[in-house]
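General statements about sequence and structure are easier to judge against a single worked case. For one protein, we set the task of working out the structure tokens from the amino acid sequence alone. The sequence in question and its structure tokens are set out directly beneath this paragraph.
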Amino acid sequence: MLTKGDDYPIHQTPEPIAFSGTDRNFYDRYFFNGYRQDGSGFFAVAFGVYPHLNVADAHVSVLRDGKQISLHASRELNMERMDLSVGPIAIDVVEPLHRLKIAIDSGEGVRGELVCEGRSFPVQEPRFTRRNGPRLLMDLTRFTQAVRWSGWIEIDGKREEYSAASTYGVRDRSWGVRPIGAADAQPMAPPMSPQFYWLWAPTNFPNVALYYHVNQDAEGLAWNERCTLAPDGVDAHGQVHLHEPRIHMTWAHGKRWASEMLLQVKDPSGRDHVVRWTPLSTFLMKGIGYSHPEWGHGAYKGRLSVAREDFDPAALDPLAPMHLHIQAICAARHEGPGGLAADGVGAFEQLVIGPHAPSNFKSVLDGAA
């Protein structure tokens, strides 16, 4: 089947663009978040394409007055991967790798127009490949980019404006294989207890962005990790990759959400850098489809389906599986060599399932002591 993408020189296989390999879990995804310099006005957007499921979905979620308001949308893809719209949510790639626009116009009380511009060239993360026994769990590439936002979001007629001078954020693009859609009906043999430890902390400072992420196994050994500084305006060659990162997490009692985070790392000259994050508020990633029991990524909802969902993050069980995955909006402090220091803001993402020896987590869902 030929589609719009076939008229661009972007083929990766002998197949038409409508087909992407053979793994039914292949996906192609956009993610965005935004927040003011004091951490207020947080919003996030997700947009996913699932070629072998013939589904596309999009989500917008906003923190406002202690509540999280989400708009979910899903449609049949019709094998057309170049159509970046799902019902009331649309993405326009104005200038690839630099400037994108998001439009939201729903009958559910959620509207908006937002434009993000990259602060520097995106940071490509190491390829993520992970297996559970013989079964491929994930195999993907992702880049992350610190951005500035301009525009507005309106909830039930109340509009909030965002200015590029005072609104930071992050976007990413990832594609490859990870669990999506319906769960695999064939269980592992022998059964394996789930374990996944993920921290992702892209953080905006006045003239530079810090990128840090890590995956660790149950013993605390990293199987994917990178820490990078990207000054404003640099290309890929101007990024500074840091070394020997050590992350220290203080977990809130009875939760798998952190109350304090500290990173120690060295620059290429061997000089020490320390970054501290202090949470200001909590955003549940289920608001943009992650682990959502009804609106999970790739779930088939018919030709087109749109719904709004409002909830209070503070009123929900933090150890329920769909509430483990969060972004903590944080004040940040970066202390570098020679007494240099800067204050910033970021969203520190956390998803910790199963045992993790350094955190003293012993079972699938036990909270911190």
Q: What stands out?
A: The chain has a mean pLDDT of 96.
